Amino acid sequence: MEQHKLDIDSLERKHQMEIEKMELEHRHQLELKEKEMENALGGQLFTSMMDAAMKTPEARQAMGQAFRPSKKK
Asked: Could you read off the pLDDT of 28-56 as tens digits, one per residue?
């Protein structure tokens, strides 16, 4: 009878450890997805800011000057 109680306790501990492991893995996966979403959102934000900036004449002129070869001789 005592061995049976020990076996049940051991199984309960093992089961609890498996649950904790699954919870940790799930939390880790959620954190990874959160970072992926943050990176994607940052990229989209940068792209939309650049699109908006390039619609201004000043920005287009500055970009044109930056890529035009210098005529210094």
From this structure: 999 999 999 999 999 999 999 889 888 99
